[in-house]
Amino acid sequence: MNAGSAMSAGGGGSVGPLGGAAAGGGCGAAFAAAGAAFAAAGASLIAHTGYFHLVQKYPVTSVAPLTTLSPVFSVIFGVSLLGDPMSLQIILGGLCTLVGVFIITMREKRIVDTGS
Fold first, then answer.
1. Cα torsion for 57, 60, 63, 65, to the nearest 10°?
2. CA distances from 17 to 14, 23, 73, 99, 111 (A)
3. I want to staple 16 with a disulfide (CB 3.0 to 4.6 A). Which of 5, 22, 26, 68 is the partner?
């Protein structure tokens, strides 16, 4: 029996990440719609507007390294709000990201200071 016939015979179904049936409506569909609305309004409109405002006020070389902090904030919010597990690999990756941003920021500052 293949997967298609098992589904049509009532042999089970897939469950989406929020607990609702993947193909059905219900509460999972409402969460998906809310997530899409947040992604459109929060990430696209508000975040990009703020980013372009910063680029107008400050040098791009100072603003651009801050975009690499996005995964760090994603992990922090995932752990604190959604209860995602925290592992040593995640902590080490976050520390590597922070060290990289620090190096880029200090290097850019040194280049600006010696060039004037």
1. -170
2. 10, 12, 21, 33, 47
3. 22
Whole-angstrom Cα distance, residue 64 to residue 57? 13
Share of the chain above pLDDT 90, in %: 14
pLDDT tens sequence across 45-84: 888 888 899 999 988 878 887 787 888 888 888 899 888 8
Tokens for 20?
């609702």
Structure tokens at 51: 């980013």
What per-residue confidence (pLDDT) applies to 82?
85
Alpha helix locations (H) across the chain? 3-8, 27-38, 48-57, 60-63, 70-82, 88-115
Question: Residue range 19-43: average pLDDT?
Answer: 71
Q: How far apart are CA 58 and CA 22, in angstroms?
A: 45
